[in-house]
Every structure is written in C-alpha cells, then in structure tokens.
Amino acid sequence: DQQVKQNSPSLSVQEGRISILNCDYTNSMFDYFLWYKKYPAEGPTFLISISSIKDKNEDGRFTVFLNKSAKHLSLHIVPSQPGDSAVYFCAASAGGSNYKLTFGKGTLLTVNP
Amino acid sequence: EAGVAQSPRYKIIEKRQSVAFWCNPISGHATLYWYQQILGQGPKLLIQFQNNGVVDDSQLPKDRFSAERLKGVDSTLKIQPAKLEDSAVYLCASSLVGFPGELFFGEGSRLTVL
User: Fold this and answer.
1) Contacts of A105 in chain B (CB under 8 A)
2) Rounded distance between C-alpha atoms, residue A14 and residue A99, angstroms
3) Of B56, B101, B108, Cβ closest to residue A34
4) pLDDT confidence of residue B1
5) Residue B62 in contact with residue B46, Cβ under 8 Å?
6) Cβ pair B113, B87 in contact under 8 A
C-alpha cells in the first residue's frame, strides 16, 4: 500500500521555465510534508517542507503548495536551472514522537540548457 | 559541521554471506535512522533509534537484519544471510530530537548481492 505517490517518474523542462512536481497521499494522518533532492551517488538532501496548517511555503525559487482536501502537494521551481536536475522525493510524516517519514518513488527532473 | 558518515560505500557479496554497514551521525543528533532504497523506489525506513533505544523497527526483516546503536552515537546494520533482494542502497540519516521530519542523510552504502 503506497501512501505517498509520485505518478510522474520523470519530467523534462527548459532552463528558465517553471518545473512542477506533483505528489499525492492517501493517509489523512499525515500532517507534515517535505521535499528532498537527490543527486546520483549522494544521499537525499532536504529542500523544503510544509505543515498541514499551511497551504503554501516559499523559499527562494522553491514553493510548495498543499491541498489537503485533495490530498495533493506540488513543488514549483521558478526559474528552473540545469543544476536543479536531480531526483525529487516527496515525503510525509504523521507526527507524534518519532516523525517517521514515508517517501514516494521520486521524480527525475531534467532541466535542459 | 561534519555530515553523516557511512562505510563502506560499496559492497559486493554472494547470497547467504553476511555484511555490516556502519554509520556515524551528526554530532548532537539523538535520532538515527536506517533506510533501504531499492533501485527505482523511494527510501523505506528499516529502523529508527532515539539515543540507544529503538523507536520503530516494524519494517525490519528481523530474521536476517539486525541493528544496534551502542552508547547512543554510531550504529551498525547487519544482514545475515543476505538474499538477492537485499541489493539496495542503505542510507543512514540523523535528526535532532523533536524536529519534525528534516533528516540529514549520509551518502549511502550500495550493496550488491550476487
């Protein structure tokens, strides 16, 4: 049972344009959502997060939107740069004392110069 | 600040052999995690420690996998005997106690079981 779904295995965009990565979840107990970025042969690195009490969080070129009624979140990257090319993982936590993260399968973003 | 250290980076073994992975978390991080990432999948939590106690090991195949975190600092994950389906990257991560979800990952240990 996959509780965090990233239905697009890959996405290709032109440099300077917007990248939109999508994520859906099924567990209504999730109350904290994160995006991680992963380059080949490296561990994932934290990118941005959002609490369920918000619907938007922005950090520079990165914005995460949360639609709780649709159980959907998205990551917008504007403008996209070639260095953004990586695998992006959506993750969710049900809170509590251990903050266990459940990850999606990831989306490979390629930004073409 | 030093990051999460893992070793070895790569390991190739025959099925039924054993293997051990080591992790040293970021100094001051009380919570340590071991994740398994199979090719094409997202990381899956195997075990979570807080200090030297186990918080969650519900997805750890306990018949073959074991992990310990002596003295609440570094940790070892062992697989014995290994199966073909254990081929994966084993990621160690750490976090501050009580901080919701932001994990700091090591570079991972890639295991190939032949």
Assistant:
1) 40-42
2) 36
3) B101
4) 66
5) no
6) yes
Nearest to A88 by CA among A38, A29, A34, A32: A38
Task: State how far residue A106 is from chain B, nearest Cα, in angstroms.
Answer: 6
A105 and B42 within 8 Å at the Cβ level: the answer is yes
Q: What is the pLDDT of residues B16-32, one digit of tens each?
A: 999 999 999 999 898 99
Work out the number of other CB atoms within 10 angstroms of the CB of residue B78.
14
Residue from the list A43, A45, A103 with its beta carbon closest to the beta carbon of B108: A43
Say whether B103 and A101 touch across the interface (CB within 8 A).
yes
**Cβ neighbours of A95 in B, within 8 Å:** 100
Mean pLDDT over each residue of chain A, to the nearest integer = 94
Give residue-wise pLDDT tens across range B52-81.
899 899 999 999 999 999 888 999 999 999
For residue A43, give the nearest of B95, B101, B107 by CB distance: B107
Residue the block writes with tokens 């009624």 = A69
- Residue-wise pLDDT for A31-45, tens only, equals 999 999 999 989 999
